[in-house]
Amino acid sequence: MRALNPSDKKYLCANSSGSTGHRVEVLFDSLHQRGRFAARARYLHANGWNPLLRSAWIIGIRPGSPDGSLVNGGFIPRATFASHTEDFGKQVDWLTKVDPHFLYVFPSTLEAFLAVIADQKRRLPSLRRVFTGGEVLEDSVRSQTRGILGVEIADNYGTTEAFVGWQCLVGSYHVNSEHALVEIVDEHGRPVSSGKAGRVVITTLENRLMPLIRYDLGDYAILIDELCACGRTLPRIGNILGRTINLFRLPNGQLFSPWRLVGLIKAGADVRQVQIIQQALDRYLVRFVGASTLELDGERSIRDGFRKIVGGDISVSFERVTDIPRTAGGKFMAALSAIQTHSS
Predict the structure, then answer these.
(1) Nearest to 276 by CA among 291, 290, 261
(2) Which domains are seen in the chain, by residue range?
(3) pLDDT, tens digit, for every residue of 167-199?
């Protein structure tokens, strides 16, 4: 739905990364952009950000993206920007030279940095906090960041369509309720109860040019209706589970989060990068980047772990590759459901 005669002639046209399987074009007016930037400023400020201190942003800004003007507009005077597609070793060299007080990065890029920093015994002595967004943040990356860099992560939940929510110092995800109305619903569009997972549906409140009404983002998250200990009264949501194509299905059709499977492999195998593909309800492919192939005992241990987590008689095969490519939008998918891809 689009306004035929928008009062604001200056507008932005943005395209989603297509990670749901469908690329979407969205138009934004200046009111939406001001609201988006205000919400982002609140998120950064609430987590100790100081724009006058050094910051490093390693992100994928596509031409015409909603945050493009943030990079090009000079709003953050001490910020330095770099592409997340550069070689990880070169990016760590660059980070060491910048020695930022704040780092903004994709979770998958951060995980790769941590491996290089730990291996080469690098240090970022001035770093105070890491900010992440754009991908699902695994608990293992949080603990590694705390152990290797000695700082905490403040994650955010944003999409091309809207800046949905962000984490406070307590760790809760708060919804930007001035910017978007967020509902967590079941497969029939009915609200789920607190503590339950459901589909994320948004209604944008500041974009008069192209308003979205009960728009299904294709994401799953957990509803939390209790007030946060930080004192804010903004609505809360629990963990962001990811997109439908990043969630797996049990033989009974129930969706489940794949992150325990991903964590199982990372904890028990010497791999630099891993991607699990659910090819069928009872068949999985583990693609990994590593210095060598997995030993038979390692494969057997992973298969046993999969069966304990998933249940039933399942098949797990392994494929060693030299690289696992990112999506067109520059994101890395550690879990991918071919079942969902084929059905979309």
Answers:
(1) 261
(2) 11-244 (3.40.50.12780), 247-343 (3.30.300.30)
(3) 999 989 999 999 999 999 998 899 999 988 899
